[in-house]
Give the backbone structure.
Amino acid sequence: MEYIKSTIEDLRKSLDNKEITGEELFNKAKTLANDSQNEINAFVTIMDSYMPKGKTKTILTDIPYSLKDNFSTTGILTTASSNILKNYVPVYDATVYKKLKDAGAILVGKTVLDELAMGGTGTTGHTGIVRNPWDKSRLIGGSSAGSCASVASGIVPFSIGSDTGDSVRKPASFGGVVGFKPTYGRISRYGLFAFASSLDHVAMLTRCVKDAAIVTNILKGYDPLDMTSLKDDGLDYTKDLDKSIKGKKFFYIKEACSYDKKSDMLSKTLSQFDDLIKKIEKLGATVDEISIDKDLLNAIYPSYMVISCAEATSNNSNLTGIPFASRIDGNTYEEIMFNTRTEGFSELIKRRFVIGSYVLQKENQEKLFLNACRVRRLIVDKMHELFKDYDALIMPASGGIAPKFGEASDVLSDEYLILENHMAIGNFGGFPSITIPYGFVDSMPIGVNITGNIFKDNEVLNIAKQIEDILDFKGQVAGDKNV
Amino acid sequence: MIEREKIESYAEKLMFRMKPEELDTLEKEFDIILKQMKLIENIKDIEKVNPMTFPFITYEAELRSDEEESDSLTVDEVLKNSKHVVKDQIKVPKVVE
Amino acid sequence: MYKVVIGLEVHCEVLTNTKNFSNAKNSYTNIPNINVMPVDLGLPGILPVVNKEACKKALKTAMALNCQTPDEIIFDRKNYYYPDLPKGYQITQVTKPFGRNGHLTFLVNGEEKTVDIHQLHLEEDTAALEHYTNYSLIDYNRSGIPLMEIVTEPCIYSADEAVAFLENLRNVFLYCEVSEAKSDKGQMRCDVNISLMKDTDTKLGTKVEMKNINAFNSVKAAIEYEIKRQSELLDKGEKIVQETRRIDEDGKTYSMREKVDAVDYKYFVEPNLAPVKITDEFKEKVRSEIPELEYSRIKRYLKLGINLEDASTIARDKYISDYFDELLNYTKNISIATNYLTIVILGSLNKLNISIKELFITPKMLGEVVNLVDKNEVSNQLAKNIIYEAMEKNIEPLEIIKSKNIKQISDEGELINIIKKIISESPDQVKEYLSGKEMVANFLVGKVMKETNKQANPATSLKLIKEELERMR
């Protein structure tokens, strides 16, 4: 068995057949993690010893995993990759972490994110940039950068991240792995450091669809500590994965996939998408091209910025140096807050907070914040309307491969593609949404995104698995394939 | 176009300072986001739409029954992440109202 | 002369086992930071979960104050930075408060007064700041304790009205059992907004705000001081500054800060608290738990012919009022019943320093005694002694009466013999009477009482004595 290529199921077998012990698995993962740090820099913290805390034996017992460093872990440094929390050691467990601990999964390390999960490049964490294991000169995307890199490079078979705009599903595309965000509330957010509460989702990165189903099975369910969490649907998400999707109806958004002038990269990506559609139709499913009001589609990105920045500026008001976070002293409490926050936040974060605060101000709220919330409603209503006739939306997760460092930044720019931002729709409406690899461009992986109606997590996973099966990327790790 | 002083005062209200070059970038970003938001006003009947706060509402959420939790934090846990503790409380410079 | 216009913002801690958004204990303690959950500390990743009991009690109070109530429960965030606010925002209600457009009617010096309630909402208390010479300490026990805020319209025109409103509002809390409302523990505190205007003026004068006053008499003092201060300024033709003032022990107020431009709290709906429907069933259940309130009881007592002072005394405390209402099930003589409750019972409660719930004498027992007095079977004097004795020995009054076979002797045949005897024994007094000192008759009544150990009917005895003496002329 080659560890780095192993799925959860493979490892389960080896463990059950006593070919390897949990401790040996942990040590493999730990060594890989440490060795990768110089080149990839996926981790803020790497655990030093194997500490099984499982309550009962489950499919995840002794399976190594990594956890984004914005989940609260008692006694384990949790920084959200921000200087303001560089010494913060939580005193309570996130529900997700507790469930994984109880299930016997073994934490290998806490992974780097874009500071406070605000960003999509993986370059803004306080411990430095995260590199793409497929090409070290490229970024892996964010904000769940380290989580994605740790799975894409085979250090762990799965990682828990968070997805507010596309923070798991976009990196998954750049890293050639699976990124799944279940329905809003399917997994408790308790203990996930809030970025934008109404958009935040616990999400995961794996190397195959079935592993995503396995992990979601363990994590889903109602949590009395999260009023927005959903009652368990009682389904085993691994059961229906192999059902045929014959007769299913999919659609993609015309305006997002057709441009007058296309870059070479965009045309390559889109032509692969066309090939994929043909393959899907061979499975007996139909894929329609649907047209949506372009003004509405163009409004997705600014509306996402406005809503997420507004919630973020409030959610992070607790970071003042009183009674936690690295306080920088002053003669008055105001000075303490000023010094702590001025030193503690990077420029990008400050810019986002100012925008968020601006749109919430009395005189701006109607035209900015509330209009953004109105756009959100229009888009979500449109999706619900389409989901009456269609089982899923299928789209390229990105207009291309992972950019080189310097090519992309988190500074707002005027030229953006609808194709780069459509996945926020999944967060607007809380729709279950998954990205899986569907090809390579210039030897770099690209991903396709599948989004279904709320509560249809089981169906979305089934569709994704059926598509995964007709492709050849299941379980791939960086460098594994030379295309 | 928002004038510089305003932006600075917004930062101040958020309890942090920004460097001049940071404000430059922010000014540009404001122009972009405000221009894009302006376009939203063109969407037909946008003002009639009911703003959306929650991704969806099930009305299944339950209020918490008023029962005390045994494992509330210990004093040490409450104070664990502060270096400024006196008499089991968090110390700050005198707060003058 | 200026017209005074006052608006009040009353904060009241809600009586629950746990906090509003965490299940940490809600209780008053001097040991710092022992009732704290991650939510109350605003730690990264925490999520609030709404306390059902707190909502129920806020709704109950809103209904008791005749407010319109919402169809669902949602909360909003009020964003600002202060060392006692760990999250950097307070969870409160703006979009759909538990109560709107209510009113409370009560009496001020015998005059009926109605104060309009602008809004009642549920929110969370902040941590407690303790100030020392050169630093302050933060205790998070109070952080997140459920707090009701009641905001009145500016429709209060004097210190007396303000205090009367606060007292009646507190009794609404106590009657509904939604709060202990102890001002000394800061469980009930209020902000006073006051402005003066010429009688001729149409628009309100400059508003001055006085924050966090606990004791009601401090409210009175503060208002009176402000009226004086502002009147003098206006007389001198000076402007009133819009500001927030603090009140000191001596009742004087001091400027805290001038209101520059009002803070923008950037309110928005709290996204972590999924909306919960308030069903009509739930509303009805809550409504059914609201008892008859103070003012309605006072009016009922007045109709029974009870004077205002007694009516108010009885209705001031729900449990005393309940006791009295039950007492009326056992006796028809309201005046004696009222007299015995307000004098004998309330007097003893003070003396023994116990609550009426702890009292040995049940309404039934008291009713029985009242009826004996009513039927002239036991003298008033004796009846009261019996009640005191009953309380002392925890023996039912009727038992005592039986054991001492006490009854009032009103039978003239029986009395006349005793009287004849007394007269024959008191020749001097007889002389005095016949010589015109008719007062002596009362002295003889005393002797009769003594002879019958207080069982003789004094009125009947006096009548008979006079008849006897007259016959001797």
